[in-house]
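BUG: 3D viewer hangs when loading the predicted structure for this chain

Environment: internal workstation, default settings.
Expected: structure renders.
Actual: progress bar stalls at 90%.

Input used:
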Amino acid sequence: MTAHLAPQSEYMTALVHHRYGPFDQLQIAEIVRPTPGQGQVLIRVHAASLHAGDCMCVKGSPAVVRLATGLLRPKNPVPGFDVAGEVVAVGPGVTRFQVGDQVFGATEGACATYACAPESQLAHKPNPLTLHQAAGLPTSGLAALHGLRDAAGLQAGQRLLINGAAGGVGHFAIQIAKAMGAHVTGVCGPISSAMVREMGADEVIDYTKEDFAEGGPRFDVIFDNVENRSLADIRAALKPEGIYLANSGTGASGIRFMVRLIKPVLLSPFVGHTLKRYLSTPKAADLEVLKQYAEAGQLHPAIDRTVSLGQAVEALAHIDSGHAHGQVIVDLAGSLD
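Structure tokens produced before the viewer hung:
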């Protein structure tokens, strides 16, 4: 239930939570509208995008996420990191944007009708995309770019396998890898096979019928967004000097989670393969790369569903189930005053 606490000009509608826990503790409320500070812009949010990281931040699990979001309770009560909308105010020192610009990027508190974002984490909206489509790019698109370009150093002609190819990061990784000239094999379930092919995969492996780890070493790079196989299985599918890029760590908790998190990094110096994890942090220059791909027709988000702010709880549960195919977009345009 939404309660109006003050004149609309001072407050905004937002999805909020003041403690970690299940998704159904989230509520829609009227909270104070932020004011842009040094190097920030105020965005009238038209759309936000939700992904697995948002699920972790709402639940506060695995516990390691609390190092960034707050140890005992959320530092920012509004979930969401991916945003697209219109600039309505700029703070001191902003030089790249002005009022009226349509932008996309990353910030905290995206699931609200207004959000402040650092200029350094924004770019102008790609011309071919709507604001709703652009909202799906930042976190997942950058994770794919940083993984393939920076961590794996993917080269034209290399053979890449993407485990979890239909997910948020996976379907962007297909498109970016093809733009980089790689041969792409996508692993997904039968429902997602057509979508993975549409994204540009050269080959599709239906994990219900075929095991990608069988048949000997085939891949220069394995980009794993699921981590549901042992390192022995993964290494069996890699060429002798191949690279394994781990980008999940989910499916375990407590000590088992920590073991899964650090085992590839600890093992890597003692084997022929390179086993890696990496961090993806939003930067304006890399958002510009995504923009260029999109404007060249090489990158577009697959939208699993578009929901209202009131449907965000169900959307988070859907993402947490592991069955989202592409991006889940929260439409905030209808909530704007």
